[in-house]
Amino acid sequence: FRSTQIMMFVNEAMETWKQLRPDIPIHLLAYIHFAEPPLVPVHPDLCFWFAPYPTNNMHYPLLDPRQPEPWRRRFEKWLTMTSCLGFYEYFHAKPSPEAFYAAANLRAVMRLPNHRNAIIYAEIDNDFGSASIGDGEFGWDVGLMNRWVLTRLFWDPTQDVDALYRYYIQRTYREAAPQMLAYYELIKASWFDPDN
């Protein structure tokens, strides 16, 4: 595996790094070929960003049995290999409730002893110029909800995800909140329907 080659090199380099710059932590991106956990132990002073991209299913948390096997297995293994695991993830400016996925994954990472040193990197697109909602020009009004909820969860993943979505809808849509809540519930039901 490429990840094993990389880790062998990094482990060796870490010995020099710790002598020269012990005050500066190193974070590695476990992305695509490096998302597969290496077959060698990782240096205890390293932190990692785990990037479950591009074939994970954001309908289900990474540890959910319905998650495609490679991603569930990879995440489980990374959780045992390091005490400092963060995320590198792509989210979308769509009304799909991706925050349930994010919250569950972040809660799993919070069980690690060194979770406070983990880093979260998230790219949240706005779909501008794409062939999605309204040709990418009109996704912001409903899609911004995900950005708001995700950023709250990055500060505290233990929060109630549904309550955050509802709070956002109530504050943003005011008199139209009941209709928008009904719209959100339809999207959420469809998102979590395993037959959809």
Please give a handful of descriptors for the protein shown.
four-stranded parallel β-sheet, alpha/beta, 196 residues
Judged by helices, strands and strand pairing, the structural class is alpha/beta
Round the Cα radius of gyration to an integer and report it.
19 Å
Order of secondary-structure elements: HEEHEHEHHH
Placed side by side, the strands forming the largest sheet appear as 1-2-3-4
Biggest β-sheet description: 4 strands, parallel
Q: Number of helix segments?
A: 6
Strand percent estimate = 5-15%
Low-confidence stretches: none
What's the end-to-end separation, in Å? 35 Å
Counting DSSP E segments of at least 2 residues, the number of strands comes to 4
Q: Can you characterise this structure?
A:
Helix 3 runs parallel beside helix 4, helix 4 packs across helix 5 (161-173) and helix 5 packs antiparallel against helix 6 (177-192). The protein contains six helices and four strands. Strands 1-2-3-4 form a four-stranded parallel β-sheet. The chain starts with a helix and ends with a helix. Strand 3, helix 3 and strand 4 form a beta-alpha-beta unit. The chain is elongated, with a radius of gyration of 19 Å. It has helices spanning 2-20, 69-81, 99-110, 140-155, 161-173, 177-192, and strands at residues 26-31, 46-51, 85-91, 120-124. The chain has 196 residues and is α/β, with parallel strands linked by helices. The model has no long low-confidence stretch (mean pLDDT 88).
